[in-house]
Amino acid sequence: MSYKDYIREEKLPLMWCKGCSHGITLASIARAMDTLKLDPEKTVVVTGIGCWGKSDDYFRTHVFHGTHGRALSFATGIKIPKEELKVLVLMGDGDGTTIGGNHFLHTARRNIDMTAIVTNNFNYGMTGGQYSSTSPEGSITSTSKYGTAEKSIDICDLAITSGATYVGRSTPYHVKQMDNLIAEAVDHKGFSMVEVTSLCPTYYGRYNYRANSVDMMKMMKDQGVKKSKYDELDESKKKECFPIGKLHQVEEEDFNTKYKKVKESIN
Amino acid sequence: MGEVKFLQGNEACAEGAIAAGGRFFGGYPITPSSEIAAVAAAKLPKVDGCYLQLEDEIASIAAVIGASMSGAKSFTATSGPGFSLMQENLGVAVIGEVPCVIINVSRGGPSTGLATKQAQGDVMQTRWGTHGDHSIIVLAPSSVQECFDLTVEAFNLSEKYRTPVIVLTDKTVGHLREDVEIKKPEELEIVDRKKPTCSPEEYKPYKPDTDMIPPISNYGDPHLQRVNSSMHGEEGFLDMSPENSQKVVQRLWDKIEKNIDDIGMIETYHMDDAETAIISFGISARSSLQAVDKARKEGQKIGLVQLKTLWPFPEDKIKEAVKDCSDLVVVELNMGQLALEVERVFRDKDVLRINKFSGEDILPGEILEKLKEVPS
Ligand SMILES: Cc1ncc(C[n+]2csc(CCOP(=O)(O)OP(=O)(O)O)c2C)c(N)n1
Fewest C-beta atoms under 10 Å: which of A78, A121, A191, B294? Predict the structure, then answer.
């Protein structure tokens, strides 16, 4: 099999705007599936609502396209009765950590064995570029013309604090790293989360940097700093960039394993 | 013969769910439904099932829907406020055609209202709570035995029609203790979802058979499944064309409404020679039953039609039962939600309403008192 076998080529071209990086992430996921030789019959791609929520259209696996913010909850139900399924949950930042923040926290805490891939374009693409809980403070969006007055969430920090057992971050510029991270995350047993910063030149880039996709790609290259290097930077320098790569991994029993032990103890 | 136990309505619902094959419960505690969760939590791990307590009702029904598509018969239990939180994803189960059972043990509202008190105020919420046009199946037990039997029936109907089914009980039925026969699974008729018979390549998740119901492939099966909450064509991909949208909504409606004979259940009592018919459901039907007995002793020709199916509204069966009655009396613990439907169907008859929304049940004596207003 090749990575293309996981993609529904008949559904191309992609539906996303020119310059959007969702296609890069999509291909990266397909390559990770191929690296792990996932069986499409035992793989479920779960999405919510948003631009990235449309990504299930392109996968030749089982899919579930649910409601905005609830993808992890549908996925939790999908995983529990059928442990052998590989479950990949694809969400935007709005989907994953804004409207879905509570589910994100609890799915991580339960250590349900699945992989969340959160594309963070720092705004709500689908509904016209409004601010999200990940929009950096002061961001200009269609609903914050004078700059947001809210602190933003760091998705990876949130995942680690909540109990995710694998957390990584990559960018559309660092494709090889993204491929490896996603494959490693999917292979990890327990709740894994990969944040992919993403380019939204149509809204976020245009409003905040007057940037096109190429400019934004350069920003990703400059701002994404390998974790080992990032850790050595001064606090002031850290503010200008973000760590990428594997940020956290621990071995811990996942929910299904623990629940099985509960069952064994009573039967 | 199954085992006879002295149980609460809520406990009987949980027993019924497990007897019907329910193996996944996802829920969030709320009075007066919590005993259902407690029994599910105690029993499911013993039958290789799972009880999961989620962070809220939104996640609960989402997990129930997901688990069902992985092949586990799934259910949840809640009360009015939690049921409100489930409404958006109830719509997912409708348009995604996912079998599952939601038990709503209703209590007094609006809002947190009378959190620990009795009411039947969710008749319309079960019918129209989620957005858009759709049909729905709602069953309403009035005794502990019916809690068991109708929960089994709810699972069967949900599997058969590929749709969510709601069991609507109320605080009094939920907490009532009575003898109940817990039938063994082998004594029950259990319906399982229809699986595809075509090759995996040919499978289309939303291509209906002539019975209007598409076969279900579960996650993990060779036939790739595409559950889609958006308007979709037969393959499960977005299709918002006017032709497709019209067709899909119509089929979702017809697969239930055109099978009303199979789904609609009523129980009649002293209706043979009745001149006045009480129409009621849930605990109010129990009060009505006693009122009928007392009225009969005084020589009044009164009967009862108890609705076991609230939606789709079994209008033909009710029409047949009350055809010789000049008056109809609708008894319910709300401001007249069921009466609205009765009045819609029976424009040619007088409809008297008996309502209470104080958090207490309607007593048989109160019904008798009100019945004096029926013109004789
Ligand atoms: C309950 C609910 N509220 C609001 C919406 C409208 N809505 C659709 S997509 C979206 C935001 C999507 O943003 P994000 O998840 O970041 O994904 P992106 O489109 O940026 O990829 C919103 C608010 C909805 N579909 N459902």
Answer: B294
